[in-house]
């Protein structure tokens, strides 16, 4: 964290993830982020009586989403099998797994402002944001002839979400 004279503020962070649900080949995932704000109304040159407080702000960050636990592993379940000689234990395919499954990664940027008007009697805010998700994790149906009961998680495509928030 960093601040300068009560009008400039900044924060940076880094997150390290090593999730076993991603299989053995993915390794550590690094997710940095940063944000900053500038209180323009605290500057000596500010002389707008109607706007008592004006803060400009911006943020950026990367994040990752790991799949459910054991998604990389092929699994089987114990089941009872009825035979002519009675009941015997057996194995039934459950999850096909995906050892090539990678993390779902998202990146977001946003910027905007907050303003206090007429000595704090009114307030307003504006934010523009854009988020993109790459390698989205989705469940893909598997062929019934494979014997597996569940779908297979895969990385697929990109999603983009952007918009404006006004208050």
Write up what this structure looks like.
It is a single chain. The protein is an all-beta fold. 0% of the residues lie in helices and 61% in strands. The strands form 3 sheets. Strands 1-2-3-4-7-8-11 form a 7-stranded antiparallel beta sheet, with no helix packed on it. Strands 5-6 form a two-stranded antiparallel sheet. A two-stranded antiparallel ribbon has the order 9-10. Strand 1 and strand 2 form a beta hairpin.
Q: What is the SS-derived class?
A: mainly beta
Tell me, briefly, the overall form.
elongated
Number of E-type strands: 11
Please trace the helix and strand order, writing H or E for each element.
EEEEEEEEEEE
Q: In percent, how helical is the residue content?
A: under 10%
Strand content: over 45%
How many helices? The count is 0
Distance between the termini: 27 Å
Give the strand line-up of the largest sheet.
Answer: 1-2-3-4-7-8-11
Biggest β-sheet description: 7 strands, antiparallel
CA-based gyration radius: 26 Å
Poorly predicted ranges: none
Instruction: Give the integer mean of the pLDDT values.
Output: 89
């Amino acid at each position: 964290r960093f601040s300068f004279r009560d009008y400039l503020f900044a924060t940076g962070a880094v997150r390290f993830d090593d999730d076993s649900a991603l299989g053995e080949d993915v390794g550590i995932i690094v997710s940095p982020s940063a944000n900053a704000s500038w209180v323009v109304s605290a500057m000596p040159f500010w002389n707008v009586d109607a706007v008592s407080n004006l803060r400009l702000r911006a943020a950026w960050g990367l994040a990752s989403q790991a799949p459910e636990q054991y998604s990389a592993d092929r699994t089987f379940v114990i089941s009872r099998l009825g035979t002519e000689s009675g009941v015997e234990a057996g194995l039934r395919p459950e999850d096909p797994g995906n050892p090539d499954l990678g993390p779902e990664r998202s990146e977001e940027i946003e910027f905007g402002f907050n303003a206090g008007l007429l000595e704090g009697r009114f307030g307003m805010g504006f934010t523009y944001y854009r988020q993109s998700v790459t390698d989205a994790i989705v469940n893909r149906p598997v062929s019934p002839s494979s014997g597996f009961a569940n779908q297979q998680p895969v990385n697929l495509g990109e999603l983009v979400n952007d918009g404006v928030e006004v208050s």
